[in-house]
Amino acid sequence: MERRIFIKHTGIVAGGLLLNKTPGILGLNDEAGVVRIAVIGCGDRGKGVMGVALKSPDKFKVTAICDVLDFRLAEAQKMNKTSEPWKTYTDHRQLCDDKNVDAVIVAVPLNMHYPIAVDVLKADKHLYLEKTMTYNIEQALNLVKLVKSRPKQVVQIGHQYRYSPLYYRVKEMINKGYLGKISQVDCRWDRNANWRRPVPNPSLERQINWRMYKEYSGGLVAELLSHQIDFINWAFDTHPEEFTATGGIDVFKDGRETYDNVQVMLRYPEQGMIGNFGATCGNSRDGYLFKIKGTKGTVSLLTDQGMFYPEKDVLKGNDVVDGVTGATRIVWNKEGGSPILPEPTKDGTWYALNDFYSKIGSGKLPDSNIYTGARTAVCVALANQALYGKQMAVWKKEYNV
């Protein structure tokens, strides 16, 4: 990673992003430089992203919300602390016609990402589309083509690690060779719970618990492991070539269709690297685990903090890889590691929305964009092909965008 890129993103931490009113860029109608946003999908994630946006009233103003479930619209409306009620819609196409909306945040079931994204783009709105970008490979490739034809619109995909100062630092460490030759990546995202949401009416089961059903969802791979898969794609500027996987409904025999226990193994032949990505709903001991292992050391990450552990033959007294932490002398914890950053980072959504605002002003390509989003969406689809099809899946040259 070029140093100037890292400096740019650590500047985001300090906060001072200004919206440049660049001629020809959509969505700069407010004289104060505030972007008027709407949220399609007012479930937990939609309300979560909206809550972060509401903390930056100098950048974003919510003007409309949309959901097919009335009670979710009522829940979201309670977040409005102004005297002006937000417009509410149950049909996203009507929201897309709203002239008081500059940009749209889409946080709906995965099978609806593509059709709603298409409608938002054709309505000339900027788009923040939650991960995973699309439900299948064909949709990913088609969405890339559509976005290419609409260069004035900003499209950002919700893979937040591409904006975190912690993960930027790890990418820098990899690029500068601090970890040496990296041969393995071990990732987990575990829980000891059934992953269900409460259902007020049995008729709403599939709408609310859509993650459990193949018609709507990519399961644990799409909803959780896609973040880690995307980071490896980004950190190494690559994608896997071979996808093998196994799993099953091993814990909760409750009518679900997507697996509650999965293990995916990805092979990156150009890097000489294996990626192991797993998730279970039957044990929470590891919780979130992300380890990148090289001949000189290991990085162990949480979502907001991380440690660097040098290999024994690299460790000489306390003098290890200069510059890894930015400190003049490494301060070791009892396990022989050093913090990668001195303090935990903010929630990744905060960094991502700040950059979305900035890119609307500049018209530049976001770090998590239509091309990187498509690459990860293809990876998720191929991993699920291997998982549910019980055979290896491979990357094809037509997936390169």
From TrEMBL:
InterPro entries: Gfo/Idh/MocA-like_OxRdtase_N (IPR000683), Gfo/Idh/MocA_oxidrdct_glycsds (IPR050463), GFO_IDH_MocA-like_dom (IPR055170), NAD(P)-bd_dom_sf (IPR036291). Gene3D superfamilies: Dihydrodipicolinate Reductase, domain 2, NAD(P)-binding Rossmann-like Domain. Residues 169-299 form the GFO/IDH/MocA-like oxidoreductase domain. GO terms for molecular function: nucleotide binding. Residues 35-158 form the Gfo/Idh/MocA-like oxidoreductase N-terminal domain. This is Gfo/Idh/MocA family oxidoreductase. It comes from Mucilaginibacter mali.
